[in-house]
Amino acid sequence: MTVRTRPWETPRVSPCPQDFRVVVRIDSWESTSVYPNGHFVRVLGRIGDLEGEIATILVENSISVVPFSEAQMCEMPVNTPGNPWKVSPEEERERKDLRETHLVFSIDPKGCEDVDDTLSVRTLTNGNLELGVHIADVTHFVPPNSYIDIEARTRATTYYLADRRYDMLPSILSADLCSLLGGVDRYAVSVIWELDKTSYEIKKVWYGRTIIRSAYKLFYEAAQELLDGNFHIVDDIPEFRDLDEKSRQAKLEELVWAIGKLTDIARHIRAKRDHCGALELEGVEIRVQLDEKKNIHDLIPKQPLEVHETVAECMILANHWVAKKIWESFPHQALLRQHPPPHQEFFSELRECAKAKAFFIDTRSNKTLADSLDNANDPNDPIVNRLLRSMATQAMSNALYFSTGSCAEEEFHHYGLALDKYTHFTSPIRRYSDIVVHRLLMAAISKDKKMEIKDNLFSNKDLEELCRHINNRNRAAQHSQKQSTELFQCMYFKDKDPENEERCISDGVIYSIRTNGVLVFIPRFGIKGAAYLRNKDGLVISCGSDSRSEWKPGSLQRFQNKITSTTTGGESVTFHLFDHVTVRISVQASRCHSDTIRLEIISNKPYMIPDTELFHQSSLLLKSDLVKEVTRSVEEAQLAQEVKVNVIQEDYQKYCQTKGRSLYTLLEEIRDLALLDVSNSYGM
C-alpha cells in the first residue's frame, strides 16, 4: 500500500519521512479504531518529484522493474563488434530465405527500437499479388521454461509510460536481435498470402519461419508523405542518403509503389470488416515532448494518419488468420482474444447525447452502431463525431485473452473488429501472449507436416490460468500508462501561471451534463475533465454581456441536454451539450492523492483562437488510430469505468495485504464522487 505522509496526522505505523511517498504494510485493523496498525516498508520518493511519482505508479500497479538476473542474461545470445551474431547454416536450411526476393520494410513510430513487425508486397509471375507480414521470431531465442521465459511470463507485457518503457525481454533481444531493424539479417515468422490481382481476395496462405533483411525502417510520418506524393521526405530516410541519383529514383519508385499497394489492400480489407460491423472507436493518445534536459516542452495529441490504418489492417489480418490456424489444430488449447458485446444499458448516455444533435444511434449490433456513428457527422464541428465515438468506446466491454477449451465457439467473436476468431501474434517482443501463440503456430505447422511437436503446449486449465494473469497485467499496463500521462499533464501545467500563461487558456467542448457541472474535452491537449458550475461557497457561474464568467448567488437547473445557471438577480446562462467554451487549465494540488487537472469555464463562448483547426482533416484522416488493434482504445477507456480493483497475488505475498479493496482505492473512489450524478447513479 502506498500513502502520502502528512504532518498533521499521526498514523499508528513506524515513523517515516514527511512529504514523501512511502510503502507501508498494514498489520492489523482493530474494529474499534478508525486507523489501521502497520509499519513502514520503504520510501518511494518525494511528493511531486517525477521519479517518486513514477515509482508510486509502478507500485500501485504491481509492476516490477528489477534488472534481469545474471542467470537470465547468461541465456542470451551474444552480438558484439568482436563477436557479431550471424544466421546459422542450420537455420538457413530450415527457413525460407526472403532476403534477396522480397522488399521488406517496417513502419513504426519515430525512434522505435523494438520493431516487432515488417511488411512486404510484390507481384507474382501469374499476375497476382503476394502480401507478407513478417514478425520477429522471439521463440527462437526464448525456449519454453527457460529462465528468461519464466521472467517474460511473469512480466507478461512491456510497460509503456509517457516518457519511458520497461521491457518484457532484455534489450539484446527487444532492441537488437529480435528487432527487425533495417539492413540486418533477422529471423522471422511469416504469414504470406496470395491475393487476386484485382479483387484482392485471398487465394492461398502460407505460414512458416523465414529469414528477412528489412530494406527500410520508416517512421509513420515519412511513409504518409511518400503515400501522399511528397518526396522531399526522402532526405530524412537514412537508407536513401548515400545512393546515386539513378539508384535513388529507382528505389524510391519501388518503395512508393509498395506503400501505395499496401494501402489499397488495407482499404479493401477494412471495407470487408466494415461491411460486417467493425467499429471505428475514438481514443486520445498524448505524446509528451521533452527538451534536451528532459523537461516537458509540450503535450501533443497524436494525429491519425491513413498509414496507421494500413499497418494496423495488415496486422489484424495476420492475427485473424493465425487465430483460425491454431484453433483448427488445437481446438481445446488455443489462446485467442474475445471482445464480448457491451450491455445495451451502457449506451444510454451515448443515445441521449446524440439526440442533442438530432442524430439517432442504433446499438442493436456492431454493424448498426458503426453505421450510426458514420452518419453522426456535424459538418460544422468534427469534434462532435469524435466525442460520440469516445462515448461508444466507454460503453464497451474489455477484450480478453482466453483458452478455447473454456468457451463455446459462439463466444469467440470479437465485437469491435467484427471477426469470428482473433488472437495476438504480431508483437512477441512486448506481449507474452504472442509468444504463446507463436509456439502454437509452430506446433500447428509441425502437426500438418506429421512432425513431432517439440514444445510442450499448455493444457486448457494451465492456459486459462495464464490468460487470467496476462489479462491482469494488461490492465495494469493500461492503467499505469493512463496515470503517467495524467502525471505529465499535471507537471506540464503546474509551473505555469493560469491567470497569465496563454497555454493555460484553451477551447473546450462540453460532452456531458452533470448535476453541478459539466464534463469538458480539450482537443489541444487531449484532456477530459470536470468543470464545476457551482463552487464550494455555493455560488453559481454567471456570464455577463462580455461573456466572461463570475461567481454569484443563485441555483442550477439540469435538463437532459443542457444545464442552466440562474442568479438571484435574474441573470441566467445555459450550457448545452457540444457547446464550445473557453476554459482555464490549472493544477489542483493534493497532499493525499496525486495532483489533478482543474478546469474552469471563464467564458461561455469559444476560445478566440479555436484549436479545432488541428482536426480539420478529411473524414478518412479523422478515423481512429488503429495501431496494432482497434480495441486498445476500448480497453483504455473502459479503465475509467472500472469499479472493482483486481489486486495481484504478488502484492499479497510482498506486503501481506488483505484481499479486496485497499484503503487507498476507497479514498480514490471518494475523490471521484465529486460530480456524481445521483439521479441515475452514473459516476464520472
UniProtKB/TrEMBL annotation:
Q: Which GO terms describe its molecular function?
A: 3'-5'-RNA exonuclease activity; RNA binding
Residues of the RNB domain: 95-447
Print the keywords alphabetically. Answer: Exosome, Magnesium
Signal peptide range equals none
* Gene Ontology biological process terms in this record: mRNA catabolic process; rRNA catabolic process
Q: SUPFAM superfamilies, alphabetically?
A: Nucleic acid-binding proteins
Gene Ontology CC terms: cytoplasmic exosome (RNase complex)
Q: Which cofactor does it need?
A: Mg(2+)
- What is known about what this protein does? Catalytic component of the RNA exosome complex which has 3'->5' exoribonuclease activity and participates in a multitude of cellular RNA processing and degradation events. In the cytoplasm, the RNA exosome complex is involved in general mRNA turnover and specifically degrades inherently unstable mRNAs containing AU-rich elements (AREs) within their 3' untranslated regions, and in RNA surveillance pathways, preventing translation of aberrant mRNAs. It seems to be involved in degradation of histone mRNA.
How this chain assembles, per its entry, is: Component of the RNA exosome complex. The catalytically inactive RNA exosome core (Exo-9) complex is believed to associate with catalytic subunits EXOSC10, and DIS3 or DIS3L in cytoplasmic- and nuclear-specific RNA exosome complex forms.
**Which named protein is this?**
DIS3-like exonuclease 1
Which species is this record about? Leptonychotes weddellii
Name the gene: DIS3L
